[in-house]
Amino acid sequence: MAPHITVVMQTFRASGGPFSEFQKGLPLPRSRQFERARAQLVGTVNRIVQKRRARQEDRGDLLSTLLFAQESEGGGMSDGLVRDEVMTFFLAGHETTANALAWTWYLLSQNLEVEAKLHGEIDSVLAGRLPSAGDIPRLHYTVMAFSEAIRL
Ligand code: HEM
């Protein structure tokens, strides 16, 4: 999905231009490329949603939360609505996270004492295993360093 998201993000940036509304209706290479990328992303997300809907199992993740959500008046979310939510998470969570991590690694490379302290905390808290969300409260210094990178 990464190359398609890249195309969509590039078009998103260009969509702030003064003639973007006018250009949207024209068969320009950029619009066609965008439509192709959009169709690929929608197709992939639709397949995932339909597969998970058919299985009816709650895997305790974000997609299960959406699929099992019930409106207060009763009734769940349609596949189209779930697809749009998933697409928003993808687009809002992809480049932001990549940028935040890239800047964090860069800033750590410029602050070697901080990098050493952060590695020390990760080594002692995780002791070689992969992290899970439950480790975050104990990764106090790591969270501070990441927050500072985002602040800068
Ligand atoms: C370090 C990573 C991230 C940064 C820096 C970031 C930053 C932002 C910012 C600045 C906004 C706009 C807030 C506003 O204008 O009111 C926003 C909104 C949003 N972000 Fe993120 N974000 C990150 C990660 C994510 C991830 C991982 C997801 C989803 C999986 C996500 C989903 C959203 C959504 C859905 C909104 C819109 C919220 C609304 O309805 O107003 N973001 N984010």
Quick synopsis:
The chain is an all-alpha fold and 152 residues long.
Q: Could you characterize what this model shows?
A:
This protein has two domains: 2-93, no CATH class; 111-152, no CATH class. 73% of the residues lie in helices and 0% in strands. The protein is built from seven helices and no strands. Helix 1 crosses helix 3 (29-55), helix 5 crosses helix 7 and helix 6 packs antiparallel against helix 7. The two termini are 29 Å apart. The model has no long low-confidence stretch (mean pLDDT 90). The structure holds protoporphyrin IX containing FE. Protoporphyrin IX containing FE is lined by residues 88-89, 92-93, 96-97, 100, 150.
Task: Give the SSE layout.
Elements: H1 2-14, H2 20-24, H3 29-55, H4 62-68, H5 79-110, H6 112-126, H7 140-151
Helix pairs in contact: 1-3, 3-5, 5-7, 6-7
The structure holds protoporphyrin IX containing FE.
List keywords for this structure.
binds protoporphyrin IX containing FE, 152 residues, mainly alpha
